[in-house]
Design a protein that fits this description.
The protein is an alpha/beta fold. The protein is built from nine helices and seven strands.
Amino acid sequence: MNNDAKEHDVCPLKWDCLHCDRALCLRVVGVADFPSIHGHFKILAFTNTKDKKDHIMVVKGDVSKKENVLTRIHSSCLTGDVFGSLRCDCRFQLEESLKRIGTEELGVVLYMQQEGRGIGLQNKIRAYMLQDTGLDTYDANVFLGFKPDERQYEIAAAMLTKLEIKSIRLLTNNPVKIRELEKYNINIKERVKLEVQVNEYNRSYLLTKKKRLGHLLSLNDTRNV
């Protein structure tokens, strides 16, 4: 926040982001204490000029200028994270990430507003309808006129850079996420696998992730992926 105050003083628009012509201007607009069932954290709110969405970060410890910070970049999933959908693995991954970071000295979870791999909530429900007719998640997104995965990671990288995190251990099964973050100069020291329980409703979803989206999953054991 002290750095943000300095940036505000030198900003010619005094953070009038709506009229800023920079490709990406990102700042912290709130920091609060955040005790939870998974540990005691801080929660940070960000604003930015690129997508103007409310991305947040849950932080364990003083991560500034630190190495090997355990990190999860999680895309929002209202159906899973809030309503407990069994069609995906999102809620299970989020809870497992918070649980692991809660046991670490340092860690962060970025909660990015990129519902349905970036196609939005309404289109995600439309994709559900197509999946009910037999399409997989890849083809459903394409049928609706989107890429299989519309997410981008520039803002997530900017959030990590904003906190001056030197390097991370990334909780992910998705090699594309690693490559995209490295494009924005995020130093990833290690990929930490994030495997959760399979059920009868999400098994085909996970198989699509593995076979068509390249996620590093093992489905040999029916209990885990």
